[in-house]
Amino acid sequence: MDITTGATIPTPSLTTSSRRRLVLLPYPLQGHINPMLQLASILHSKGFSITILHTCFNAPDPTNHPHFNFMPIPGVAEENLPVSGTDNLIRLMRYLNDEGLGPIQGCLEQLLSEDAGVASLITDAQWFAVQTIADGLELPRIVNWTTSVSAFLSFSAVPLLRQMGYFRGLSDGIYNSLKQSYLIKSHL
After folding, report:
1. CB of 183 closer than 8 Å to CB of 154
2. Which of 104, 136, 142, 180 has the greatest count of CB atoms below 10 A from its CB?
3. At CA 23, angle to CA 20 and CA 26, rounded to 5?
4. pLDDT class for 14, splitting at 50, 70, 90?
């Protein structure tokens, strides 16, 4: 309704081709995928077209979300990867943020060249290296923190706890990998 005239303003019906497309990039672990898919469902209900960009490792099942488009990232995490233990999780984070950048950029360039384009990229916070791609493509990026506030506070406390002598068993390699995360970079 127009506030000044009281007239009803018609809203156009949103067809798939006229919707604004959002690309969501969940981190390939279950506690990260589910919140991103829930966010995608909310955004879809508000009229956005959704494309889920995902690794083949731990990929979401497209049949559970027929109203989304799914695009696998070629050549990244196509095999089962060990994800138990701190060392393996940090290796996975480094691998995805190093090896995944080129293929992710290729997928985004392809989506940007299509008629629907891309309104925004929404990524999990663990995809910290993707910001350089978004900046290069002049694509707005929204970072979604999919874990709890206590996990966020834990990440930000790592440098202080290490200075206090905790994490003596935390190797320099693991600690340096953690430092690369934008989540704690500003605290070091």
Report:
1. no
2. 104
3. 150
4. very low
What's this model's pTM, rounded to 2 decimal places?
0.71
Q: Give the residues across from 72 on adjacent strands.
A: 54
Q: In what order do the strands lie in the sheet with 69-72?
A: 69-72, 49-54, 21-25, 120-124, 141-144
- Known catalytic residues are 32, 124
CA–CA distance, 19 with 12 (Å, rounded to integer)? 10
User: For residues 115 and 17, is the Cβ–Cβ distance under 8 A?
Assistant: yes
Q: Over the stretch 154-180, which tens digit does the pLDDT of each residue have?
A: 767 777 777 777 766 555 655 555 555
Category of 75 on φ-ψ map: left (φ > 0), alpha (ψ -120 to 50) or beta: left
User: Which residue's entry shows tokens 């196509």?
Assistant: 78
44 has a pLDDT exceeding 60: yes
Please list, in sequence order, all residues whose beta carbon lies within 8 angstroms of the beta carbon of residue 42, skipping any fewer than 6 positions away: none
Main-chain dihedrals φ then ψ at residue 28, nearest 5 degrees: -80, 45
Q: What Rg, from alpha-carbon coordinates, does the chain have?
A: 19
In the block, tokens 């233990």 appear at: 85
